[in-house]
Amino acid sequence: MDERKRDSIVAYLQRRMAEFDITPEALAASIAEDQRRLQAVKYRDASGNSWDGEGAAPQWVVQATSAGQSLDHFLVRREKEPQADKPKSVDWRDDPFAGTRLATIKTEQLQAS
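The structure assignment produced for this chain is given below.
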């Protein structure tokens, strides 16, 4: 975006904020509240409806569970932080190819074919 266009958009937003009596502090507080609310979401459907799991279940949850859908289906799964320090270990005792020809093929042979 070029600088003139950016300055034009900023000026427009400042005029609209003044028109509706919106302060930068109120805007920042609103954004922070939205972020907090998004972090509190535990269940979400494909339409974007969400629920924090507290209080009475909303209508979309009641309808889905009445139709036989599990509540776990709508659970929002948060990404776990990767553990960079600890490498994943491999349990070779459960190797299905142990003792077979596949376990003895060298990587050079695989790359050559």
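Interim note for the steering committee: Residues 41-77 form one domain. The first strand starts at residue 43 and ends at 44.
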